[in-house]
Amino acid sequence: MLQTLVVNWDFVGGSSGAYVVRPENFPLLGSYTQYLFGLMLLLAVFSIIVARTIERSRLGYGFAAIRDDEMAAEASGVPTLRLKLVATVVSGALMGMAGAPFPYYIGYLQPQSAFGLEYAVNSIAMPMIGGTMSWIGPLVGSVLLGTLQQVATVTISSAANLLLVGLLLIGFVIVAPNGIVGLVQEYLHKRRRK
User: Fold this and answer.
1) Of 139, 168, 163, which Cα lies nearest the Cα of 153?
2) Which long-range contacts (CB under 8 A, 24 or more apart) does 79-84 make?
3) Which domain holds residue 171?
4) Does residue 135 sit within a domain?
5) What is the pLDDT of residues 151-191, one digit of tens each?
6) How many independent structural domains does the chain possess?
7) Domain check: are 23 and 106 in the same one?
8) Where are the alpha helices (DSSP H) in the chain?
9) Is residue 155 part of a domain?
10) How confident is the model at residue 37 (pLDDT cuts 50, 70, 90)?
11) How far apart are CA 30 and CA 12, in angstroms?
12) Structural domain includes residue 27
């Protein structure tokens, strides 16, 4: 319903989209693309700090309890509904911060770019591939998947990106459900036992 509203809204260009005019240079930082890179880098560092802070807080322990067993967490007195709402708000805020500079980077905004399947699949695949048990898992997954997608775009085709993500996602769900970080932790744990 939201997609239909946006596609038919003339104020934002409707289905034809709208061009975003951006300045050529940004004061003190050089080109506008360099400014956007710096801004996105700062937002990524801020997101990692937020994730790390939440992971080691009481809130993070509540999230871990819900992730492991929601019924047991509820029986233990963890306010699962409240924590789910907090998780939704925090993740929505971080996704909004990450998506706000995107139209200025591509220079053109259309409804398909906002509702594209590749963005939804990537936002699920990156933490699944890296691992969801720690803050570093999504970081590892995003660096690995982003690099593989760029290599596939340059060497094969940009249409192969979604296929690559789907195959990696299926492979990691079957072979390593805890992601790359989980595999490394499991390997180190087995090595310590020996």
Assistant:
1) 163
2) 83/59
3) 116-194
4) yes
5) 887 788 777 777 888 888 888 888 887 888 888 888 888 88
6) 2
7) yes
8) 2-7, 32-55, 58-68, 70-75, 80-99, 102-106, 111-114, 117-130, 136-155, 160-175, 179-193
9) yes
10) confident
11) 29
12) yes
